[in-house]
Structure prediction request, 659 residues.
Amino acid sequence: MPRVLYGKGVIAGVAIGQIMIVGQALDEYLEDYSKGSAEEEKAKVEPAVALVTEAIEKSVADLNAQGMEEQAAIMEAHAMLVQDPMFIEAMLSKAEEMGNAPAAVLEAAKETAALFEMMDDDYMRERAADIRDIGKRVAKAILGVKDPELGDKKVILCGHEIEPSVIANIPTESIAGVILGQGSTTCHAVIIAKARAIPTVVGLGDGIDKIPDDAYTAIDGEAGEIIINPADDVLAGLEEKIRIQKEQEVRYASLKDLPAVTKDGVSVHLAANIGLPEDAKAAAAYGNEGVGLFRSEFVFMGREDIPNEEDQFKYYKEAIEACNGKLCVIRTMDIGGDKPLAYLEIPHEDNPFLGFRAVRISLQRKDLFLPQLKAILRAGVYGKAAIMVPMVINAAEIKQIKAMVAEAMAELDSEGKEYSKDVQVGIMIETPAAAVMTPLLAKYVDFFSIGTNDLVQYTLAVDRVNHNVSYLYNHFNPAVLHLINTTIKAANDNGIWAGMCGEMASDPYAAVILTAMGIDELSMSAPSIPKVKEKIRSINISDAKKYLAEILAMDDGDEIREYLHRVIDEK
Amino acid sequence: MTEVQLKVENKMGIHARPASLFVQKAKSFQSKIQLAFNGKSVDAKSILAVMTLGAKNGAEVTITADGPDEAEAIAGIKELIESRFGEE
Prediction:
């Protein structure tokens, strides 16, 4: 009987293979273990550590030889952890205390991992899994447990948490897919899977226990679907999907250096959304034209004090330089009560999304906003930069922002620091208030960038992560479309540019309609660029304008979506 | 015994990959080396101890080395931290 389970798809692609449950429990081995004296047990720890170290060093060498440097670095960190004096000391003293070497090693790893789990930093919390992984390997070495043998079959690895060492030690060609019970997308297992482009679904929670070992299974890493024992017709459909996927990769690669221009010559800039300066370099692989949204939040997060102008300048300069002369749009701080930072001193709010956040904080906290503006203005010397302010609702805010920019320039003048006078100043259109007023706001700014995630949420009064109402969340909702159309028209009429940096920009069908509305730039996560570019290159603007006229007269978001998929795919 | 006080200026702090580089460097010397931050002092050759110390960007840390190559150890570690662990 086929069965279908759903998780969160994190690495796209379809995979078919046999389930291999990993992260096997050691309970039975531990029960059967006959322990010696406390002295004997203690003496077993160091030889086991040496064995594991040797095995890890061998996989580091193998991975380096295969050019998989990122995974090699992860395993190198494991080699250091297993030989760590603090960890060895913990294992030895536990072995003496418990008189059972394998159990002691697992306990020492658990206690050490707990230290990491308490930290207020995602990266450190995830190291807890590495430490448990290592503890388990040492325990297995003492117990004499071998890793599962893989034949030449293709497997889908499946476990609550998969130890990075397990994935790293299996050759890429044997792993068809990965299924994880835990939901993190930044754990090492996911990082390794991403580097190898292995389709991956996470976040099944305890649902993962329903997946039987060895079951013939298909997974869709985009939809997050897991089909156990798929029927023949489903299987045939999935195999076809794999074939299309391979063809698509080749096509996308060939588009990299081509412009996003319709058959009849209307072009749109496709830019990348980035969170860290180095993302701008990675985006180049997808053929981005500059950055349409650099989320500056990372500068503010994970620290105890306000980031100073110098620090921020370095990050912005790095991102701007990575844009190679194309525009780099830097969004000023977009934080509120939902992500409290101690130094912001925001009191608890019942409704942080309607509260003290983003520009509302920036305008009251000169000590935060001025250094950020000065840093961007200075970094602007190294390329083309723009300042983009989030959550604006009215003209008064824009006037205050511009006064602050003028003040930042005056300070830089008096400090004799070099800066660019050509940095554009624009606002995000993500509140209905700003969207409706764009015909009047356009005269104050150099550009509008539509942030659809919030615009949809605020316009429709829908929290997209609330399962009871998420069906209402649709960027083709007519109210949203009319606000977007108003915004783009206002920009065109006033001679400024309009862009979009929300998720809607990465929907190829939406991109067709936005191009017809006259949008100048679409900014999205870099891997989405090829699919949007391909769609834009396949249409005529005259057809797209006809579809636009049709949908602006329609009153149902779901019907609009179906209509667009139908007419655009027919072409 | 040789001692130096330094400010951690790389983006990640002594954390993640920089922590591995730091410990590798410390291990290349014979001297006993301690890393102190925020009133806590740990063995600079223990990756776990160094990572759990939490010396982030902007942290003021003190390195002490005691042994035959203590001067070289301090110089080597100082250079690593001042080079911001090779981060761009």
